[in-house]
Design goal:
Elements (H helix, E strand, L loop, with lengths): L2 H27 L8 E6 L15 H18 L3 E7 L28 H11 L3 E6 L3 E3 L11 H4 L4 E4 L2 E4 L4 H17 L4 E4 L16 H8 L6 H23 L4 E4 L23 H5 L3 H6 L5 E2 L14 H10 L6 E6 L15 H10 L4 E7 L11 H9 L18 E8 L3 E8 L6 E8 L2 E8 L3 E3 L10 E7 L5 E8 L1
Parallel strand pairs: 1-2, 1-11, 2-3, 3-7, 7-8, 8-9, 10-11
Antiparallel strand pairs: 4-6, 5-6, 12-13, 13-16, 14-15, 14-17, 17-18
Helix pairs in contact: 2-3, 5-7
């Protein structure tokens, strides 16, 4: 072989290799054109913050408000609702353990329907996840409230303490943890929820000059094992989280379990692992919530720290804290909690329309931050200095799947079958012998460019009215209960 022929053959094979590699990479990159991101919003029911707008509304009006919230959330591009279903040892669902919430109807009366069931059905119709947000220890918002006979504080007053103007389960009483696990198991068993979610209320925020009244329980249950009552309190919360993880995952392994803590774990002045902040209260020292331990031990599926501060805050700076949580994630997905309620307030930073977009852009450059949750829904209905338009036309222009749950569990016997497209609808069939739910991602593209996508729990959608040239490809992905894509069908048009 001549030198010339050798190089000709070498170039030919190299070019073929490059083309094959390009095709492989291109195919891989187009496996799903949709991004993975948590896009959540908190819907608070305590004190009727977001829903229902007041207690005692007729069932029809309560349902209309639900549909309005979900339609609006879908329009803005959200893929998850975090609905407060147990604000104070009361229920927005049918419970054997706790009374109906007084925020639904006065005197803890039945609403004559199952609100959580309705929320789930309507959310899933729109391809939106529904996470059940509970408060583990809070038992009543006001000591003056007359609790019904079936309230746990009425039947088992020895489980509770009074602190400030509120009543709390005493985390140091073992029966408190047992009861909370029963409540969570009931919700997970009876409802097709996507997750159990808790916020920052563990031990209550300290009241100046007033000690939390648990010394008797410490002497009874903790003094022999813990020389410091603070370590015992952290142990109590750890046991709650650890036991709840087991309860949830042994009941339905695919159900998310996540925490939305106060934004500062510890200050660096108190712990070299802490953030460069000067917060007056912290999770570890004031609320006895050791978030880092929970992430390190894989007891929770995600963390959503409430970073409700601006990027110039002198004590708790957003930029510093976002970077800290990213660096201390223990490979746990981080969803940032944003305080949209502050937009337009007297603080000059929150009068700047670039403040929240600046925070979103910071998040995009931090690899362990996998999305955002916004507090709270009602503020999305007012002027947020153009932020809603930024969501619809920019950040959330195309729908996104929520991040996968990291699990070794596999759902069984799920596969896509026939895919049919007509002028009016797209529909498909599946084989699904698993008890785990599934949902579907539909992507419509032209010339390998995504022009439309949507997510649904149904096996058909109305064909969208696209003011564009005829699409060239429609693809339906089967998404299992862990948010993993486990199959797909495509149709060239």
């Amino acid at each position: 072989m001549t030198i010339k022929n050798y190089f000709a053959q070498y170039f030919k094979h190299s070019l073929l290799y490059i083309l094959l590699l390009f095709c492989y990479l291109n195919t891989f990159s187009q496996a799903s054109l949709t991004s993975r991101e948590m896009r959540g919003v908190w819907v608070a029911t305590v004190a009727n913050i977001d829903w229902p707008t007041k207690p005692g509304l007729k069932k029809k009006i309560q349902k209309e408000e639900i549909i309005s919230i979900l339609d609006h959330s879908k329009q803005l591009g959200f893929n998850a609702i975090f609905l407060q279903v147990r604000p104070a040892s009361d229920a927005f669902y049918k419970s054997s353990y706790e009374p109906w919430s007084s925020f639904l109807n006065k005197q803890y009366a039945s609403p004559k329907y199952d609100p959580l069931k309705f929320w789930i059905e309507e959310a899933h119709k729109r391809g939106i996840e529904l996470h059940a947000w509970i408060n583990p220890y809070r038992a009543s918002m006001n000591l003056k409230n007359n609790l019904p006979e079936n309230h746990p504080a009425s039947t088992n007053p020895e489980w509770f303490v009074e602190y400030g103007e509120k009543r709390y389960f005493n985390p140091g009483v073992p029966e408190s943890t047992v009861h909370i696990n029963k409540v969570v198991k009931e919700i997970v068993t009876n409802y097709n929820i996507d997750g159990i979610h808790m916020d920052d209320y563990f031990y209550p925020y300290p009241i100046s000059g007033k000690a939390f009244p648990d010394s008797i329980e410490y002497n009874k249950y903790g003094a022999d094992s813990f020389s410091d009552i603070k370590d015992w309190r952290r142990h109590n919360v750890n046991e709650t989280i650890k036991s709840l993880t087991k309860t949830i995952k042994t009941t339905k392994p695919w159900v998310n379990f996540g925490i939305s803590p106060f934004g500062v774990w510890r200050n660096k002045a108190d712990d070299p692992r802490g953030s460069d902040t000067k917060a007056g209260a912290t999770n570890y020292d004031a609320l006895y919530a050791d978030i880092l331990l929970w992430m390190e031990n894989k007891w929770i599926d995600y963390v959503a720290p409430q970073l409700y501060w601006e990027t110039t805050h002198p004590v708790a700076n957003y930029t510093i804290l976002a970077d800290w949580w990213n660096a201390n994630s223990y490979d746990t997905p981080i969803y940032i909690g944003h305080g949209i309620y502050k937009i337009g307030s007297d603080n000059p930073d929150w009068q700047d329309p670039k403040q929240l977009p600046m925070q979103m852009n910071i998040n995009e450059n931090l690899p362990h931050i996998k999305g955002s949750i916004f507090f709270s829904y009602k503020h999305l209905k007012r002027d947020l200095l153009g932020f809603q338009d930024s969501l619809k036309t920019g950040y959330y222009k195309h729908e996104a799947l929520a991040p996968e749950i990291k699990s070794k569990n596999q759902t069984q016997s799920q596969s896509l079958r026939k895919l049919k497209v007509s002028r009016k609808k797209i529909k498909w069939t599946i084989d699904n012998k698993s008890t785990a739910p599934c949902k579907y991602l539909i992507e419509i593209s032209k010339d390998n460019k995504l022009i439309y996508n949507t997510i649904t729990y149904n096996k058909k959608i109305a064909f969208p009215e696209l003011n564009i040239e005829k699409p060239t490809n429609i693809k339906v992905y089967l998404v299992d209960a862990y948010n993993r894509i486990v199959g797909s069908k495509s149709l060239e048009l």
